[in-house]
């Protein structure tokens, strides 16, 4: 689990990022979880936007994704979810 200080640090890092994935009508599926996991391994920190036509609410989407890829939900703001997972291969972010 991330501490409050670590979450604040990650939020500031994520501020300038653009969402890489969009969750739409289909919701979260196996293929998406696989792609998000690969992207997180490469980037460690990323944003995902939940589109208007998504059947699940953003909290459910965040929950499913974080469990599926074993990542931490840093923040849910508006329809954007910020996820963090420490990379095994190319660690870039040093947490406070």
UniProtKB/TrEMBL annotation:
One of its GO terms (molecular function) is RNA binding. Residues 1-96 form the CRM domain. Keywords: RNA-binding. The keyword RNA-binding applies. It comes from the Bacteria. The keyword RNA-binding applies. It holds the Pfam family CRS1_YhbY. NCBIfam families: RNA_bind_YhbY. This is Ribosome assembly RNA-binding protein YhbY. It comes from Peribacillus saganii.
């Amino acid at each position: 689990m991330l501490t409050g200080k670590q979450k604040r640090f990650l939020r500031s890092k994520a501020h300038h990022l653009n969402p890489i994935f969009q969750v739409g009508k289909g919701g979260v599926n196996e293929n998406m979880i696989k792609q998000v996991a690969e992207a997180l391994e490469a980037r460690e920190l990323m944003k995902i936007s939940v589109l208007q036509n998504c059947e699940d609410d953003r909290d459910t989407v965040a929950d499913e994704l974080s469990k599926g890829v074993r990542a931490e939900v840093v923040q849910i703001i508006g329809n954007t979810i910020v996820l963090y997972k420490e990379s095994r291969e190319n660690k870039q972010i040093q947490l406070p």
